[in-house]
Write a structure and sequence with these properties.
Length: 425
Amino acid sequence: MEKKSDCPEPHADQSQDRPGTQGILSIPSELIHHILKYLRTADLVKTALVCRSFRFISQRVIYRNVQPSEDMIIPCLRCFALYPHLASCTRTMILPDVTRRHDVFSNFFNLLRSALLNASSLTDLTILLDGPYARYLHGCPFRLRSLTTTLDWDRDFIKLIIEQTELRNAMFGGKFVNDMALPSDTLTKLTRVSASPLVLAAVVPNRKIKEVELCLLHHALFKDDILSTASNILSYSTGPLTALQVITRLSDMPSALAALKAIAKNLPRLNSFAFYSSDGVVSQELLEAFPEFLSCFECLKSLTLMSRNKTDALHDKTFTAALASRWHTSCPSLQSISLAGSIWLHNPRHGWVTLADLERLLREHYGLLLSRQKHWTAANPTTSLEDVKGMKRKLEEGIEDAAQGVQMEQQMILLCDSLLQFGGP
């Protein structure tokens, strides 16, 4: 006897909506959908049993973001291959590479293709399959806005990229096959990309790339000649390029400083720069030499430095406390600096302050403006000329304080944007 599938039939429940649910169902389905987003998956499964209408909405919530564990990937793909109405609910899908730890059956890739062919509404795909498997994604109906993949950068992958005309954000981590060039009319909407230098050389020039993550995971790659070539390639972006993050392994201080100066020389108009050391030590000597690097930038506003080594100089808060003001002398355009969790923002009136200090100052400004508003509301219309002049001075101070408050809010927004771009410290 054939085993009954655990996946729901498209119209398995033909009964009418249960009595007592009509009042709830008078609420717009969009509002019900918004409410159900706050439920746990187990609660959504129970909600789906209430009636057909709730089942439809619950399924849309359950299957909107799909991230199966390794042991559930094949059941998930089977479900999507068998029930297109469930696969069509998915907007975000994250698929790890099960071939790294397990022997998958020979039909796995055909099953993967069948499932993805039904995911017509997919916009964000992470597929961490290492190898030349891009052909299984050809002809899929979705138009991705974000793609994270380790598929080989080969001829089949180029064909896949040509199909994805809406792609805006991409992380290309696969092996680059030589002489694989992109047609000039592809990736016209791409603005953010993360990749190795070889892939970036094929993607960035003559495209409107604004944010780049440069991956140099071998310490021998973080050299001034390689960074000079890579940053020169990035300079051909028509974005223009405004934000750069470098992920690398540090070796010796002189090589690191020379590599950083090569970046600043070729990309002097960056607004945001982030550096993440996945291995090695960020030394005091390197941080003290940073003014040489920062002085090459013309309009850098945000600087982020991160390190996995919890014992290096970046994590020494006593040492880093004075760096912001010293670096600002070399790069006057700097407005925010984040060093392994310690965040400083530059305020024209108060100098360099921590994030907590900025929030406190902002609250004080709002309190001051509120008290002045109350004063003006209670003002006597028969006041003397001197009193009027005094009020005028206070009004001018109030306008200045209001402008100061707006500037601090903008600094907060700038910092949030930086944390969103690079994941924060």
